[in-house]
Amino acid sequence: MPFLFGSSDTAEANQLARMIKRNEARKLASRIYTTDMSSSPEEVIRADLPAIIRHFYPGAVISYRTAIEAKPSSAGFYHLTYGRKDKTHVLPGVTLRIWKGSPAQAGDTQLGADLFMASRPRALLENLTESRARAGSERKTLDRVAVEGWLDRLCRIHGPDELRRLLAAMEEIAPHLELPEAATRARTIIAALLDGDKGDALVSPVGRARARREPYDPDRLALFTRLATWLATETFAPLPERPTAERRLHAFWEAYFSNYIEGTVFTVQEAREIVFDHKMPAARPKDAHDILSTFHLATDGHNRREIPRDAADFLRLLEIRHARLMHDRLDIGPGRFKETANRVGTREFVTPELVRGTLRQAFEVGRHLSQPVARGAFMMFIVAEVHPFNDGNGRLARLFLNAELTAGDCGRLIVPTSLRVDYLTCLEALTVGGNPEPFVGLVSRLIRFSVELPCGSWEQSVAALEKSGALKDAPAGSWGIASAML
Length: 486
Description:
Layout lengths: L2 E3 L4 H12 L4 E4 L2 E3 L6 H7 L1 H8 L3 E3 L1 H6 L7 E5 L5 E5 L2 E6 L9 E2 L4 E3 L2 H8 L16 H15 L1 H18 L2 H16 L9 H7 L6 H15 L14 H15 L6 H9 L8 H15 L11 H15 L17 E2 L2 E2 L6 H12 L5 H15 L6 H15 L12 H14 L3 H16 L5 H11 L18
Parallel strand pairs: 4-9, 5-7
Antiparallel strand pairs: 1-3, 2-3, 4-5, 6-7, 8-9, 10-11
Helix pairs in contact: 5-7, 6-7, 6-9, 7-8, 8-9, 10-15, 10-16, 11-13, 14-15, 15-16, 16-17, 18-19
C-alpha cells in the first residue's frame, strides 16, 4: 500500500515521523502520506483514490455524474454521497465533493470494503435532480444531453429491453431515495426513447433521432466530423477528367484494382477477357460478375456522375448501386441493408439498427464540403466505415468516391495493387486512431497516380503499370513500389 494515514496513536505517529526523516515516506495532503517517493502527488492520489475514500468516508456511495463517468470529471471533481452534511475535500489532482443523502441501497455495487458505486437506476435518478454549479465547483449532475446520450448508449449496447429493466428497477428504489420529480423525468425520457411518444421532451440530437426511429452511432459521427473538418481545409492537386476515348480503359483499371483490394484476384489478361470479351470463367462466375458489374457502374453515363441530393437520396443511391453491383450474389441480399452485424477481426462496424440513422447524419456533416475530391474522400470513408451491406462495401465506397469526382468534372481515382496495403492501413489509422492525416495524404498520392496513368492504349497502359510495379503488392509504409508514377 503506498498510502499511510495520520494517526492519533503516539507510537504510529512517531513511526511515521521517523520514516519521513529517513526519506522513506512523504506527505501528500493533510493526514495522507505515501511511501512512493518518485511519482507526482497527483499520480499517487489517482492511482488508488478508493483507498483514500474508504479511510475518510467509510460506506460512501460514488454518486451523481461520477457514477456514470466512473472517473474524476474533466474539471477534476469526484462526487460521493456520505453522511448528513455537504463538504469538499481538496486533494492533489482531484477534489472530492461529498453530498448528504441516502446510504447504499439494494442494487448499489460494493467495491470491496466500505465503498459502493450507485446502481444504474440510482445514477439515473440522481442525475435527473435539479442542481447548479457553485463558485469554483461544477454541477454534480450531468446535463440532460449527456444523460440522454448515456441512455441511448445503453440501448445501443444492450438493446431496448435494457431501458425497460432500468425503468422497472428505478420504480422500486425511487421511493427510498425520495426523488419523485427525478422519477417523473426518467419515465418521460425513457418512454420517448422507446416509444417515440413525447419525443419533443428530449433535448439531445441522439435522443430525438432514436425517438424518430432513426438512431445513429454518435462515436462514428464524431469521427466523421473530424474528417470533414480536416478535409475542409485541405487543398488537393487538379485531377482533370479523362478524354472520352480513354474512359473505358481507365474504368477497366478502376474495376480491376477495386476488386483486387477485396480479394477478387484475376490476372490482367483474365480480367480483360471478362470485361471486353465477356468470356466468363466456368470455375468463378460470381467473381467475374463482380468485376464486370463494377466496370458497368463506372462506365454507365448517368450512374458514374450521379450524386445524392440529400440524405434520403443518399440511402436510395446506396441501395440501387449495391443491387447492381451485387446482382449475381443473391445470398448477400443485393440492395438490402444488413440485418446482422459485420466485423473485421474483433472490430465491429456500425450495428444494423444504426445504419440508416448514421448514414443520414454523416451525409449532413459532409454536405458543406466544396471540393469534389474532399466530398468524394468523405463519401468513400463513411460508406466503408458504416459498412451498410453484408458484402461489397469497399467497392461501393470507391464508386461513391468517383461519382463525386466525375460530377465535379474531375478524373476518377484508382487504388493500385501496390498501394492496397497502405490504403487499408490509412483507413485503419483513421478508424482506430482518429487520425485523418495518413488517409488524406494517401488521397493526394492517388491523385498523382491516377493522373499519370496512361490509358491511350492497352499496351501502353500495361507497360507503364508493369514498369512501375503497380500490379504488385507492396509492404505498408512504402507508399507502394509504384512510387515512380507518384
